[in-house]
Amino acid sequence: MDQESKSVVYVVSDSVGETAEFVVRASASQFDEKDLDIRRISYVDNIELVKDVVHAASQVKGFIAYTLILPNLREVLMKEAAQNNVRIVDIMGPMMDAFMDVFHATPKLRPGLLHRLDDDYFRRVEAIEFAVKYDDGRDPQGLIRADVVLLGVSRTSKTPVSMYLAHKRIRVANVPLVPEVRPPMELFQITPTKVVGLMISADDLNKIRQERVRTLGLPLEASYANRERILYELRYARSVMERIGCPVIDVSKRAVEETAALVLQYVKR
Which positions of the chain have pLDDT values less than 50? Predict the structure, then answer.
């Protein structure tokens, strides 16, 4: 089939135009339009370009699908299309009208907001993958790339807080502090302002660890839940945090959301 006999649809958008193109392709799938030529015109921001697209569509006897947010561009498109006998399809207009009519909402009239939401989504996914990769001190190199590094003994909510912050698009690495294991050198090379220590009362930690031991089917007298061992670990953790000079949060009886909110305060500072 030659170029002139193809069915042509122009996709016009003041942003990327992915939404309109997706709708066009979804609709075309219901027809035998194997040679459909979709010509996407992105980031349309001036009247002359709108006129040019309408003229081009009239020459090939195609139609225009559009997601134009700015009222002046929409008005020009409708006027030019009527004068040139070109069919136009408003992809977002009816939906925006429904929001305004039913919810009495006012549109922001800012192009590209959906694309920005997509960017936020991908940043969130990246942060979650980062938190998983650099959880529990797996790779010290992650400490250098992290936005926040959490320190603490076992069962001080390091991983849950890391994942909560990751959903806020913050890259978090966490390091367990164990007296018998030397902390990674990278921990002392990064700026202390992006390190946050998590401390907990010995009594609370003892209860948490006893429950953990019970869940694992281990004897309650295991050293992991031994009070003297816990005090020893906490003293060691405190000494590491003081050496770094980082802020410390007491997570005793705090929900993960509360601890994460305090970490966020330090991040914003």
Answer: 1-3
